[in-house]
Amino acid sequence: MLRTLVVNAGSSTLKLSVVRPDDSVRASLTVASGDFGALQRFCAEHGPVEASGHRIVHGGGLFVRPVVLDDDVLSRIEALAPLAPLHQRAGVEGVRLVRRLEPDLPAVACFDTAFHATLPEAATTYALPATWRQNWGLRRFGFHGLSHQWASARALELTGRPVAGSRVVVCHLGAGSSLCAVRDGRSVDTTMGFTPLEGLVMATRSGTVDPGLVLWVIRAGGLDPDEVEDALEHRSGLAGLSGTDGDMRTVMSASAAGSVDAARAVDVWLHRLRQAIAAMVAALDGLDVLVFTGGIGEHQPELRARTVDGLGFLGLAVDRSANAAAAGDADISAGGSGRVVVVSAREDVQIARLVRGLLSAP
Predict the structure, then answer these.
(1) Which of 63, 187, 255, 306 would suit a FRET pair with 70, their CA atoms being 20 to 30 Å apart?
(2) What does the pLDDT look like over 216-272, one tens digit per residue?
(3) Average confidence score pLDDT of the chain
(4) What are all long-range contacts of 70-75, with beta carbons under 8 Å and residues at least 24 apart?
(5) Which of 51, 79, 111 represents a domain boundary (last residue)?
(6) Per-residue pLDDT averaged across 319-335, rounded?
(7) pTM greater than 0.85
(8) In whole angstroms, what is the distance from residue 345 CA to residue 291 CA?
């Protein structure tokens, strides 16, 4: 059994946790990316640890399960940076920081794409020319896999359902958002694709748009690829719709204060979310449990209720009191309805479990 240092590197922050063998968390801290001094102090205060686990956003087609990190693996991970530039490089930097502090500590990479390695071919294949797909490896990968894996399993525990035969839709809703259809504990569809830009409306990311629209803007506006990328990644989504920073708390406050743009942004966000949930249910041929997780999913009861209110045709309804009071993991289903639950995102515990499973294997 291992005490694990979990390192979750974002584009600007480094989330650190020490997870005990029983899955309890000894300590957690968020520091600025590259803050070696903070990492030293954290490990000195909350160590010792026997292994480190690192969240890596993109495994491409190379990494479909956790892997022990060495120089060769790290270089191959770094080579995937063009598929997720900000997050991939941050993940590699997180590995190097820990190596600098504890060069002999066993380290494991856990990939956000790996849970989606079970997607059927019909769900991964883009309708593009064969030469494009073959020469450039163009396919749908999916992301947020560590969160989807944890939340789907925890939802079945909460509702007392066996994994076999289960049909779960997980809504990971935060600054970045995606859905996952999980059958028998395995991912069979998801909303993000080749990059984390596809799918739902997000804080500053557009989500899915007509590719013909993008081509039109490039030609009409004379924009280069960097300008288009910046707009779609950083100036679209809720921010582009509402004129705010894109944080859902800010958007909801502006809407409550009478902002027409913010109210429209919420409506668009909800429309796309309900539409995508229905698509995930279709991929599962039905639904047993709908799960909300992530910053918005866990802390915005009004949006949970408004989402489910538009899905009554699926037999879903929330108990208003339970929904308003939900804190941590909670069943918010109305009596006689399909099951709707809230699950706290615990990527740190999921990573620690994967690390233990790999390093303890015979």
Answers:
(1) 187
(2) 999 999 999 999 999 999 999 999 999 999 999 999 999 999 999 999 999 999 999
(3) 95
(4) 73/109
(5) 111
(6) 95
(7) yes
(8) 11
CATH of the domain at 73: 3.30.420.40
What is the rounded end-to-end Cα distance, in angstroms, of the chain? Answer: 13
Whole-Å CA distances, 250 to 239, 256, 264, 266, 304: 10, 10, 14, 11, 17
> Does a structural domain hold residue 124?
no
**DSSP 8-state secondary structure symbol assigned to residue 333:** B
Q: How confident is the model at residue 157 (pLDDT cuts 50, 70, 90)?
A: very high
Q: Which residues are catalytic?
A: 112
User: Do 99 and 166 belong together in one domain?
Assistant: no
Cβ-proximal residues to 190 (8 Å cutoff; 6+ apart), any chain: 116, 119, 123, 140, 142, 143, 144, 148, 178, 179, 180, 181, 199
41-59 burial code (b ≥16 CB/10 A, e <16): ebbeebbebbbbbbbbbbb
State both tokens at 205. Answer: 């990311």
Q: Are residues 174 and 311 in the same domain?
A: yes
Q: Residue 340's closest CA among 276, 294, 297?
A: 297
Q: Assess contact for 290 and 341: CB atoms under 8 A.
A: yes
Instruction: Determine the pLDDT at residue 87.
Output: 86
Q: Using 50, 70 and 90 to split pLDDT, how confident is the model at 185?
A: very high
With beta carbons less than 8 A apart as the criterion, state whether 196 and 176 touch: yes
8 Å CB contact between 277 and 325: no
* pLDDT tens per residue, range 334-345: 977 789 999 999
Tokens encoding 332:
């918010």
Q: Are 354 and 110 in contact (CB under 8 A)?
A: yes
- pLDDT (tens digit, 9 = 90+) per residue, 47-85? 899 999 999 999 999 999 999 999 999 999 999 998 888
The span from the CA of 58 to the CA of 174, in Å, is 19
CA angle 307, 309, 313 (to 5 degrees): 110
Say if 135 falls within a structural domain: no
